[in-house]
Write a structure and sequence with these properties.
binds S-adenosylmethionine, Rossmann fold, globular, single chain, 12 helices
Length: about 280
């Protein structure tokens, strides 16, 4: 199960190298180390950029004193944004070793290692004691995990009483067919996709209260269209790092995914809940 996810992100167009190359191109001959702000156009691997992280931060009540856990942190972009804009301390947990190491290196590079700590680990068995965090956030990652209830129970366990969980994830719409689900699994390691009501029920079963669920599919549609355009614009980088075949394969599968969003078969949800 997790091998497929690890492989998908090992062969993903967004990588530490690609972020550094893009930042280097943007900065040209400017001297000195890049800042977290320099990275933000390139290091957010979710839909809606910094505004989407900000929306979760507001709903999770994150302030300077918050101890925050970012579940499935990727290259650490959202964690660095929260640390630099909300001035809080963030721990990011990430399954993929290359991504976890890349996230830690990028955080050191921009001088945020004191406030952003990256831990390699699995969201279904969080490597932390109980009640260690005031807020948990996660973006576009639970789609890869079949044991979603276990992840939610783990988030609840590590939150203090009254702590908030806020996350976004893909949603399955009624017309999503079995063959399309199967393709999403084979191509993008997406599994057991939930509906809005499905997630609401899972959050309740995990022991959360004050559950909020918003359908953000309409917000996502233009964002996803733009993301497909962005991946296509990254062709030269992707071919140089992963080869022509992988570029073509990724292009096909991402176009298929965006097509499902356009057709209303897939969507997105934003959830909040309190321990
Ligand atoms: C679409 S990326 C999102 C990264 C980050 N949340 C962001 O918004 O930039 C999904 C991430 O989830 C990670 N992931 C998938 N399954 C995981 C698991 N069981 N435990 C921890 N991380 C996982 C993947 O390796 C990948 O980095």
């Amino acid at each position: 199960m997790s091998d497929r996810v690890i492989d998908f992100y090992d062969r993903h167009p967004i990588s530490e190298e690609q972020v550094l190359r893009a930042v280097g191109r943007r900065r040209g001959s400017r001297v000195g180390s890049p800042t977290a702000e320099d990275l933000f156009d390139f290091d957010q691997d979710h839909y809606g950029g910094l505004g989407a992280v900000e929306a979760l931060a507001r709903r999770a009540g994150i302030g300077a004193a918050s101890r925050v856990l970012d579940v499935c942190a990727g290259l650490g972009g959202p964690a660095r944004f929260l640390a630099s804009h909300r001035r809080c301390r963030v721990v990011g947990v990430e399954l993929n070793q290359r991504r976890a190491e890349g996230a830690a290196r990028l955080s050191r590079l921009v001088g945020l290692a004191g406030r952003v700590r990256i831990v390699r680990g699995d969201a279904t068995a969080l490597p932390f004691g109980t009640a260690m965090f005031d807020a948990c956030v996660s973006q576009e990652a639970l789609l890869h995990i079949d044991r979603k209830l276990l992840v939610l129970e783990e988030c609840r366990r590590v939150l203090v009483p009254g702590g908030r969980l806020a996350f976004t994830d893909w949603l399955a719409r009624p017309r999503l067919g079995d063959r399309e689900r199967e393709q999403l699994w084979r191509w993008m390691a997406a599994t057991t996709l939930q509906t809005l009501e499905g997630y609401r029920a899972l959050l309740g079963r995990a022991g959360f209260g004050a559950v909020g669920a918003e359908d953000v599919s309409d917000e996502w549609r233009p964002i996803l269209r733009e993301r497909l355009r962005m991946f296509r614009a990254m062709r030269a980088d992707t071919v140089a790092r992963l080869g022509e075949t992988r570029f073509e394969e990724y292009d096909r599968l991402y176009a298929f995914f965006v097509g499902l969003i356009e057709a209303g078969k897939l969507g997105g949800g934003r959830f909040t809940a309190t321990r």
